[in-house]
Write the structure tokens for this entry.
Amino acid sequence: MQSLPGDIYNYMRPHRICICKAVSEDMIRAEIRAGARDFKTVQKKTRCSTGCGTCEGRVRRFIDKCIRELAGGEAQQNLQVDSASGHG
Ligand code: FES
């Protein structure tokens, strides 16, 4: 099997969630951490899913996953603060 040239391989790597606009999962995660909480806001900031649109479902699921992870992390931190302060 013939291998792909390095640039094409890097361009198509799975972590790039929107190929058309070259938006990575890290870029979306950063927007969630900065306060974005819905698809339209992330789309406006990153321009993801504004090309062919085939990535929209994948982007939406990833946004939901990031928000759940962030909420889980914040809940975990609150538990640690509560237990350290004697509350809870
Ligand atoms: S892959 Fe995202 S708009 Fe085409």
In short: The pocket of FE2/S2 (inorganic) cluster is lined by residues 18-21, 49, 51-55 (CB under 6 Å). The two ends are 59 Å apart (CA to CA).
